[in-house]
């Protein structure tokens, strides 16, 4: 489905290649995590698949096509088989949820009738039923990412590429997004996800391709974030404290599920200095409490998702029983284990405050420890059956794409490049700042920088 043969990508002005002699194959229906340090080449790998970048050497085949043989004019058609999700969501801030998803269909010339049925269906699939009229700023981060995922899958792509899709989300919301991505994958879509999030990778135990300085240094099936037996040093910043946040967040979900909102949540696994630690925990608790509703939505997943889930995935069927632990059990186990695993304060707690940012050095934990203490991902219960809907999605995803007549670009032409209000700026956006949204989504050929190109110009290229 995706094959790299001795692929090297060197950017002008860079001394070493971003991708260095990579040979790898990703099969239809796989769920692959792309991991590696910042700058190791993950985004470049995804951009090469999208044909946003050209390899300096080597060959790339995607969906049976040698990317070198796809002309620039044909790139938009090629990309219709690929859905893309970014860390910063990239929604059209002046369009409502429905229009954000419809946008992906309008630019490829789908009929009004098709859009009227496909969009609500997809919104239901991602758990946003009834939220079509909301504006992006009226949604939580997790909901905004669901809109972005809906937009990516509404065209029923065979491959979904996700570049740090949970990078701006808290652990509980991330867990909901991961559940959604797993369901999409179970419906037959190949998913390739670049991530830094060890907890997610450890929990899901899918194929892991690790890049280091552009080279594949590990390609392992059913793996975690780090090599077995290796310890993982986690340096956390307020707002992203993996181990304890996950345990607390899931305990909070549990508490709400039991309608015991006032019950105390689990103590953090990360030992910190007194005042800083207290402040940290208080902030985390407040944050998680605010997110609980979204988390519950995400973790529970609508029935439509269950219905859409799952063409037979032998690997998934063979998952160990431990992955099917209930949410409640997982949270409790995590809380207990996290409490037990908490090191003495002097071991892990080197907290400091620097220019307004509190940085906490988390303890070194084993891979097993992380997996046990971080139930970010909870396996869906036995609801995943092959259904007509799933079969329909898979069939539609494999249909050839017809060239389409000129599109109506009106109305959908304005996109603000900025991320959602109050969210951090995301470096990925700047990497391809010259691309319009339609180009980034693979709906239009990249035409390079154009004067006054802040506005979106959309429409298929014949
Ligand atoms: N457009 C570009 N021009 C020049 N160099 C680039 C460009 N894009 C990426 N690079 C360089 O290529 C290397 C790999 O970058 P890439 O963004 O692929 O890494 P990454 O693993 O995705 O990093 P991160 O996790 O921080 O997003 C880095 O050294 C980066 O500076």
From TrEMBL:
Domain ABC transporter: 2-238
Skewed-composition ranges (Low complexity): 292-321, 331-348
Main subcellular localisation: membrane
Membrane topology: Peripheral membrane protein
Region described as Disordered: 292-462
SMART domains: AAA
Alphabetically ordered keywords of this record: ATP-binding, Cell cycle, Cell division, Cell membrane, Membrane, Nucleotide-binding
Record has Cell membrane as a keyword: yes
Domain of life per record: Bacteria
UniProt biased composition (Acidic residues): 379-391
Family of this protein: Belongs to the ABC transporter superfamily.
Assembly with partners or alone: Homodimer. Forms a membrane-associated complex with FtsX.
Role played: Part of the ABC transporter FtsEX involved in cellular division.
Listed name of the protein: Cell division ATP-binding protein FtsE
């Amino acid at each position: 489905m995706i094959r790299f043969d001795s692929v090297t990508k060197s950017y002008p002005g860079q001394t070493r290649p971003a991708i260095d002699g990579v040979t790898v194959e990703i099969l239809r229906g796989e769920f692959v995590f792309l991991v590696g340090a910042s700058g190791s080449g993950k985004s470049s790998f995804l951009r090469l698949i999208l044909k946003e970048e050209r390899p300096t050497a080597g060959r790339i085949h995607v969906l049976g096509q040698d990317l070198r043989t796809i002309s620039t004019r044909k790139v938009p058609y090629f990309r219709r088989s690929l859905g893309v999700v970014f860390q910063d969501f990239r929604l059209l801030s002046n369009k409502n949820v429905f229009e954000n998803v419809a946008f992906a269909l309008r630019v490829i010339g789908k009929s009004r009738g098709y859009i009227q049925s496909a969009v609500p269906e997809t919104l239901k699939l991602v758990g946003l039923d009834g939220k079509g009229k909301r504006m992006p700023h009226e949604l939580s981060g997790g909901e905004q990412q669901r809109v972005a995922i809906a937009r990516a899958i509404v065209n029923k792509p065979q491959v979904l590429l996700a570049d740090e899709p949970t990078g701006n989300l808290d652990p509980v919301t991330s867990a909901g997004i991961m559940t959604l991505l797993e369901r999409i994958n179970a419906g037959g879509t190949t998913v390739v996800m670049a991530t830094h999030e060890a907890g997610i990778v450890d929990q899901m135990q899918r194929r892991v391709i690790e890049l280091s300085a552009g080279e594949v240094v590990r390609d392992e099936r059913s793996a975690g974030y780090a090599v077995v037996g290796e310890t993982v040093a986690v340096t956390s910043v307020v707002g992203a404290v993996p181990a304890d946040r996950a345990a607390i967040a899931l305990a909070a979900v549990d508490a709400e599920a039991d309608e015991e909102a006032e019950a105390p949540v689990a103590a953090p696994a990360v030992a910190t200095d007194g005042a800083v630690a207290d402040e940290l925990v208080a902030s985390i608790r407040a944050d998680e409490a605010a997110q609980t509703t979204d988390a519950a939505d995400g973790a529970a997943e609508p029935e439509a998702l269950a219905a859409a889930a799952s063409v037979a995935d032998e690997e998934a069927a063979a998952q160990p029983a431990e992955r099917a632990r209930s949410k409640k059990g997982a949270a409790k186990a995590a809380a207990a284990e996290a409490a037990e695993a908490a090191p003495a304060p002097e071991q892990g707690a080197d907290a400091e405050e620097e220019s307004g940012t509190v940085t906490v050095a988390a303890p070194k934990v084993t891979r097993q420890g992380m997996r046990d203490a971080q139930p970010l991902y909870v396996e869906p219960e036995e609801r995943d059956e092959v259904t007509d809907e799933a079969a329909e999605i898979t069939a539609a995803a494999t249909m050839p794409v017809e060239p389409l007549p000129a599109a109506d670009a009106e109305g959908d032409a304005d996109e603000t490049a900025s991320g959602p209000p109050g969210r951090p700026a995301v470096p990925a956006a700047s990497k391809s700042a010259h691309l319009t949204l339609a180009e980034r989504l693979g709906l239009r050929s990249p035409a390079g920088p154009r004067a006054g190109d802040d506005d979106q110009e959309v429409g298929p290229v014949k």
